[in-house]
């Protein structure tokens, strides 16, 4: 654990005198006051989830995401990742702001680029880590020194399993966490702590016989309930994969240029999805439905400037052009699309050139 924060009050109660049940209730209230939609507390036992992870890795379904295997068992053993951890405080934050263009409308507009709804505004990582730090400071103000560490996709953490055990939702057949009162459009974060807080009841599953998420997947990446082959997932292909996108998967990608939401869009539980309360998640540069030709014309400087502080930066400029080239290949045929592609036909990147050539061939058919 990192060094605890300096004591605010020299007369803090001794650990033995702490009412942990009251503290747990207070933590959840403080989390909501800090902008989190919900919070829950779990223990650190993740045995079944560790076995599921091991099978997934053994099947090679993580593709080029070597970091998924790099830390071994620590991903499923919080007390080994951070010695002394007894409990994990999980939080969630809704991310789709009001007024965002309808997702299906964009997907069915072949001239527009679809960006996953979570990535339209400010990158959530730093924002949520800062809020978790403030939550830790509130806890410290109540109990004095304690061990903790905040995580938001910043370490090998089985965040969905921990959130499920904390009562924040169940892991759906598409492997995304679902909350009965809020659907699945939310981010997760964790505060590992050495405080022996009472734990919450794990969430029960409510997918039933529904298989809409499996049936809708454009690239058939969901092999069956709870079995995702990331190598076929559009989110992986457009964000994590470096190099060429397998040719047989390009046409099914449609106009999805950064991530994919189809499995969530068809989920019945998302009729309960809540609008984001965080104004920084509002779409920037009209990315909730911007035209592909316009996005493809961005220079590298423009890309870096316009995506500053956004998750879209993760794909890099080369990946950005590669993804848009695929979408242009899938777009309705037009002179404007062909002109845009021809303007990039001699791009220095062989990856970009390859995908532009593929797209031009599609436009010429």
Describe the structure.
It is a single chain. This protein has 365 residues and is an alpha+beta fold. The protein contains 16 helices and 10 strands. It has a 4-stranded antiparallel β-sheet, with helices on both faces. The relative contact order is 0.15. The radius of gyration is 22 Å and the shape is elongated. The N terminus is likely disordered. The protein folds into 2 domains: 164 residues, no CATH class; 153 residues, no CATH class. Its EC number is 1.17.99.6.
Strand order of the largest sheet: 1-2-7-4
Radius of gyration: 22 Å
Any idea what the shape is? Answer: elongated
The portion of residues forming beta strands comes to 5-15%
**Which class do the helix and strand fractions yield?**
alpha+beta
Number of domains: 2
**Tally of DSSP β-strands:** 10
Fraction of residues in H or I helices: 25-40%
**Distance between the ends:** 60 Å
- So how many helices? 16
Major sheet characteristics: 4 strands, antiparallel
Main location: cytoplasm
Subunit structure: Monomer.
Pathway: tRNA modification; tRNA-queuosine biosynthesis
Function: Catalyzes the conversion of epoxyqueuosine (oQ) to queuosine (Q), which is a hypermodified base found in the wobble positions of tRNA(Asp), tRNA(Asn), tRNA(His) and tRNA(Tyr).
